[in-house]
Write a structure and sequence with these properties.
The chain has about 150 residues and is α+β, with helices and mostly antiparallel strands. The protein contains three helices and six strands; from the N terminus they run H-H-E-E-H-E-E-E-E.
Length: about 150
């Protein structure tokens, strides 16, 4: 797919995510099989225990996952996602970084780390997507992802 056209489609994909905007998620960087998204914690993100709600952490990781998985010009829909919460947090800015670890014609697997502003691990997510469409294209030859190291 033409990079200029795909770039515009990817930006539209990001901009049209109403839920991500509502929650306060911001895309910092993205590329083939990769995405970095931030969330600045506010009072509406806290649960009744005064710590960041697990759903907010999941939403942050899931948005990075969605951007990385859809970065190759084919619609990719999650078929599995699992998150492990490692550390509680109640203030600051979180960064979710999604990386593609496996890619085939129909499936993609991603690992997403969520860290605080000091680099401490807050959560880890693993997700798998089903890639809709023909599965024909240079990004799937050999089954190896073309992404960032």
């Amino acid at each position: 797919m033409d990079d200029m056209r795909h770039s515009g489609e990817m930006q539209r994909f990001i901009d049209e995510d109403i839920f991500a905007r509502h929650v306060g998620l911001h895309v910092v960087d993205h590329g083939p099989g990769y995405a970095k998204v931030t969330l600045t914690i506010a009072s509406q993100h806290l649960n009744s225990a005064g710590i960041l709600h697990g759903g907010a952490i999941f939403s942050l990781a899931d948005f990075a996952f969605a951007i990385a998985a859809n970065s190759r010009g084919r619609l990719a829909l999650a078929i599995n996602a699992s998150v492990s919460f490692c550390k509680a947090v109640s203030e600051g800015t979180l960064v979710a970084e999604a990386r593609e670890v496996a890619l085939s014609a129909k499936l993609g697997t991603y690992l997403i780390d969520v860290r605080d502003q000091d680099g401490a691990l807050i959560a880890q997510m693993q997700g798998t997507v089903y890639r809709k469409g023909s599965g024909e294209g240079p990004e799937t030859r050999g089954g190896q992802p073309e992404g960032r190291d």
